[in-house]
Amino acid sequence: MKKYFEVFKQCPLFDGIEQNQLFAMLDCIDAKTKTFYKGQTIIDEGDKATHVFVVLDGVAEIFRIDFNGNKSIIAHALPSQLFAEAFACSKTKSFSIRVSATTQTTIMAIPVDKIISTCHKSCHFHSRLALNLLKIIADKNLALTQKIEVTSKRTTRDKLMTYLLLQAKEKNSNDFCIPFDRQGLADYLEVDRSGLSAEISKLRNEGVISCRKNNFCILKTDDI
Known about the structure:
- By secondary structure, the chain is of the alpha+beta class.
- It has eight helices and eleven strands.
- Helix content is 39%, strand content 23%.
- It starts with a helix and ends in a 6-residue tail after the last strand.
């Protein structure tokens, strides 16, 4: 695991943990790594939720498939980011989402009980891990609220511009990159890809935005 040392340093779950204690801690909490190839399922709906996962390399896509087969992207987890923590801490103990690797992806799985319970050695970092996990879950809840704000808009145009304006605010810049390609953005917004592409073209022609691939620039916000 030593090759992922820089990733561990950036991981919010390990915030406040002394660097010289990091690997002893990972051993104590029984952290295990596994690599998945592109498109491989990391978590399937109905799997038991007993672990918290950290992306070490690659990208994990969290999504749902409805009864009509439509895909709705919830989020992407990048290196140093967690996923599945809310399920592991809940009473349901099973997943209602799916997670797959969008490229070759290495993840670290940690039993949630090892995070929230003190071991027989009474290692001091367990309370710190539990506090960090609580903060992460709170931040994820805010992100979910943001997605609801976006997808609750009635038109594709309103959904797109709400999302882009929120991204600009988050990045503190009107020029920014988003973590989606066109299909991914359509899935996140829960709209048809062709309709999304048409709306992007309209906004470009109106001088509201400029874009190239996943880079967007908001040029004006009046009369959106």
